[in-house]
Amino acid sequence: MPIRSMTGFAQAKGQLPGLQGNNQISFTLSLKSVNHRFLDLQFRMPAESEALEMQVRRLLKEKLARGHVEFSLNLERAGGESVSLNKPLVTGYIQAFRAAAAEFSLASEPDLNAVLRIPGALDNATLPAIPEFEVAVLEKTEEALDRLNQMREEEGRSIEQELQRRMAHVRKAAEAIGQYRQTVLQNYLERLKTRMQELIGAQAEPERVLQEAALLVDRSDIQEELVRLANHVQHFLGLLDQSGEVGKKLDFLLQEMNREANTLLSKTSGLAGEALNITEVGLEIKTEIEKTREQVQNIE
What we know:
This protein is α+β, with helices and mostly antiparallel strands. The protein is built from nine helices and six strands, in the order E-E-E-H-E-E-H-H-E-H-H-H-H-H-H.
């Protein structure tokens, strides 16, 4: 399975002529998906469609791994009937409204426009109680799913190309920092000599001298960070080649890259001369990582 974006939209329409007398039934279903940490399914379907919803939910889980997905099903019958008033819900709301108005001595009447905007106040036509209808809806759901995933795959290919470009920039920047490594080591060597002279002149204890030397040596080399950063980039590109559901893994790797970039900048802070270039390049790496994460958040 190729890398897929979590953003997409698809729609399918169906008809069942000649059922229930001559009353033709038409329906439109749509699928809309956006990014989400997990698979979050939301349904907007006619009343009394619990059994059909369970079948559709099972189908969506088979073909989708992540994303906030909204499934909508609308019915139309011959003669233009598409929605009906949910009388029990509307009646209950109006009675509750008037009871509250009487309780607080308010002269007010419910606004019909507001009432009809209540979720469920206007129901789609009730589902036909026939097996053919469920079969038709499930077939069209599969058709819409194929279209949705095709759109998600197309966007996924574009995202993949951009991710590869950004990782190439990160790799090139890390190599540029590696060229300044000797400058950094020389800078720290000068610091170490100065600090040792200060401690010896102050007649510091040998253990204190060793501690100071060890601390500066530990902060002096950025090779470890550069190696790990290069490994993360290689792993990232390898996951892109594997395809499939890799969004979470890619996001984790970017967090690790950002951590290495932060450590690298911390180790080289306060350096002078050519070593200052490391700060500029390091910030470029962090910018590329952040922009990459924005794209990865939308990968399934």
